[in-house]
Amino acid sequence: xxxxxxxxxxxxxxxxxxxxxxxxxxxxxxxxxxxxxxxxxxxxxxxxxxxxxxxxxxxxxxxxxxxxxxxxxxxxxxxxxxxxxxxxxxxxxxxxxxxxxxxxxxxxxxxxxxxxxxxxxxxxxxxxxxxxxxxxxxxxxxxxxxxxxxxxxxxxxxxxxxxxxxxxxxxxxxxxxxxxxxxxxxxxxxxxxxxxxxxxxxxxxxxxxxxxxxxxxxx
Length: 219
Prior knowledge:
The chain is α/β, with parallel strands linked by helices. The chain folds into 2 domains: about 1-115, Ribonuclease Inhibitor (Leucine-rich repeat, LRR (right-handed beta-alpha superhelix), Alpha-Beta Horseshoe), CATH 3.80.10; about 135-210, Transferase(Phosphotransferase), domain 1, CATH 1.10.510.10. It has helices at about 135-140, 155-175, and strands at about 1-5, 10, 25-30, 35, 50, 55-60, 75, 80-85, 100, 105, 125, 180, 190-195, 200, 210. A hairpin with a 5-residue loop joins strand 13 (about 190-195) and strand 14 (about 200). It is globular and about 50 Å long. The relative contact order is 0.12.
């Protein structure tokens, strides 16, 4: 097992990391600032069961070699900058039980051969979210993440509207849902903008549920 999540690591991931450890079953690189493409060498993780690379700045296409990870059960790639089409090789992950590719820039079709039932008869569930055409707020605030051909400048009114959208979402989570939800990881990369620049709060991987009781002081 290798856990390096919740740090400030940046830059690209060296292909050697996938050959430096003897067949880890769990690799968690989430919640850093890692960028670049996911190396093809990820397919060498023959015994990997859980791979978590969410909440980074990975880009490029999903490597087809992921299909070689025959023991994979849990794959979380949400909240990155991955793009292109999903490789048909993902259908080779017959034991997959959790797959989250949300909050990226994928296009095309979902491979039709991805089964809804794994080899043990368990139902497979995938999270599919509405596509956010304008990416994350992080991309608008940091020009190096933006596409070179597109302007990523927010005017004052757009900035205020985004702040109001986020505040409204948090107010709903804290005060108007049946169970109070605390996000615990609110940051620009987790604020997604649709085609009308309406902000949506995403990535609830660290969220906490706070049951409402009469003796809890909401203040």
